[in-house]
Amino acid sequence: MKLTEGQPPDVQANLSWLTADMGLAAPNISVALDSVAERKRITFAYRSKDTRTSRTVEPYGLTHRRGRWYLVGHDQQSDQVRSFRLDRVERAIRIAHPSRPGPDFEIPEGFTLQGHMERPPFVQGEALSEAKVRFDASTAWWVERTSPWLRLEYAEDMSATALVDVSDDSGFVAWLLGFGEGAEVLEPQPLRDAVRRRLEQICG
Description:
Layout: H1 9-14, H2 29-38, E1 42-48, E2 51-65, E3 68-75, E4 80-85, E5 89-95, H3 113-117, E6 129-135, H4 137-146, E7 153-154, E8 160-166, H5 169-177, E9 183-187, H6 189-203
Antiparallel strand pairs: 1-2, 1-5, 2-3, 3-4, 6-8, 6-9, 7-8
């Protein structure tokens, strides 16, 4: 969609530099918009790197970021809110129960697209792993303030643990090292190893 469409020719000429391609002709955009508006559960095949999985999602909204459309909703397979790039959806999105009248779900109170998408890139999109991270007491309060997307579980000594979906290992490692000695990956082992290798590179 161009912002100059529908304007008189002389206006179009003066504003020829002003365009915004919103990708409204992208495959599946129409059915995705309808499913969000009508709160209908959908199914689709999703490609993530070298894997292809079947997803069943309750779509909460659509957002356009950096030239791509993202469908955000509750993914039944992971039982979590996830974002899916529409250009990675293979074939057609289908309504799970087209003959069922009315909406299939309710959007959770307090949910916002902006709040979901403000999470760092390494936890957006299809998660490749889940990290369990421990923050000591001197760090946990700061993590809670600066990373509201995390759910912290506090211990009696005011340290805290959190489960983090990771879709980009290097981005996750860089984020974690920003907390210095105040954060530690407890599991899985491959991510612990990735942190150790990065520390060895930094220390030369």
